């Protein structure tokens, strides 16, 4: 049995190995040298000895991919458009990464032959290509920087790309990024109009209200929005958001009850048909003739529904301060709600319908304090305000 298991394992390993070789060969045949190289590297990293058949294929994919990249770079060397310059930079980076992958696996030999991979220093060529591309796109960003919000945002994306690929390109690059980000930003002043303060005098509610219009912009879908709840008079605001807390409705705790009668017929045995002498009567096959003996069982279920809620109604109005027009007016509410259904029973539990079982497993809940409901209603209202502002495209 152990020998059979070993044979199965060996066959499986052989098939997997052959499958990997076939995949690499197919990729080379189709001209997809990058995929062939990646597949061979993956197999050899896993087990260089077991997957040694991949080594000649790795060499072939490496050489053909490099030859393709060099040819493309040669064809692009006289072109000065941004896309061509970016392509040249990426090709040099790709060849550099490719040979790094091979270096990590060396030495590489198969069937008595050592496979050598030509290793080159691409650092200077990468630096030159990176600078040429950076120069080109930096030049396109310059006329956009002090033009309009839309153009400042385009300039920001360009400068951000330079910062990623070439962080030491210019000593003033970070300052320019901050400048265009500021130029592309929509500044929103937010103001709270609280008509329900007299109903929210508990310390928890007051604590939340103190920070109610402290809006977090980090999670906004629109990253070009900055919200202030205190005016910075050095900024020309684009929009004003007025948050109105108009009415708070508290529905006090209440417990409703309902009594539900339950009954069910259950079989408790059998009634047998008897002849005149008191003997059981048989059917044609010799079996006793019988009918089910039924008994009615009963129970009473009492359901209790606990309810309590607080609803905070209000609205949000957003005004374009440049045009004086209201661009958005949305009613909002925040709600805190408790609903708990539980039950007790008397009688035979087998008579109770399944739909009541969940309630019978639950217990009476303790009603939270009013302050807890106020807190949750305020929090949900604020979350809706943040979501509304964060999704708007100013």
Question: What does it look like?
Answer:
This protein has 10 helices and 7 strands. It is an alpha/beta fold. The protein folds into 3 domains: 102 residues; 52 residues, no CATH class; 136 residues, no CATH class. Helix 1 runs parallel beside helix 3. The two termini are 73 Å apart. The N terminus is likely disordered.
Uncertain residue ranges: 1-19
Number of domains: 3
Biggest pleated-sheet summary: 5 strands, mixed
Query: What proportion strand?
Result: 25-35%
What number is the mean pLDDT? 91
Please, how many helices? 10
Strand order of the largest sheet: 4-3-5-6-7
Helix content: 40-55%
Radius of gyration: 38 Å
Given helix and strand content, the structural type is alpha/beta
The coarse overall form would be: flat
Task: Write out key terms for the chains shown.
394 residues, alpha/beta, five-stranded mixed sheet, two-stranded antiparallel sheet, 43% helix
